[in-house]
Amino acid sequence: MSDIEALLDELNGLPSAPPSGPADLEALLAAARSAAGRWADVLEGIREASRGLAGPRTEAALEVAFRRAEESYVELEIALSACAGPRPH
Questions:
Q1: What is the pLDDT of residues 28-62, one digit of tens each?
Q2: DSSP conformation class of 66
Q3: For the whole model, what pTM was predicted?
Q4: Both ends of the chain: CA-CA distance in Å?
Q5: Phi first, then psi: what are they for 51, rounded to 5°?
């Protein structure tokens, strides 16, 4: 399965209803984090494939897009960790 197919499967698996509680939110964040990681993988593949085929502006833009995708993954990891931590009473 390609990275794009895996990403589409993960996106299609995201629940359409909003989370109804902390456990649902945690599951949603975990799924979103996984999809963000796949998206970063897709962009990395595009970035690598474009080397030598496109000009420096294209390569720079793809680099920024890849970095932002990685940052999104990290932020979702932080959100998931915070959500999974001790709950306030």
A1: 999 999 999 999 999 999 999 999 999 999 999 99
A2: H
A3: 0.85
A4: 44
A5: -60, 130
Domain borders along the chain are: 3-10+23-82
Gap between the Cα atoms of 57 and 64, Å rounded: 11
Residue appearing with tokens 């299609």:
12
Distance CA 37, CA 7 (A): 9
Two tokens, residue 72: 């999104």
Residue with tokens 């649902």: 24
Residue 75: closest CA among 19, 26, 33, 31 = 33
Any idea which residue has 């949603």 for tokens?
28
Q: What are 79-85's contacts with CB under 8 Å, separation 24+?
A: 79/29, 80/26, 80/29, 80/30, 80/33, 83/22, 83/25, 83/26, 83/29, 84/26
pLDDT of residue 16: 86
| Amino acid letter, residue 20 | S
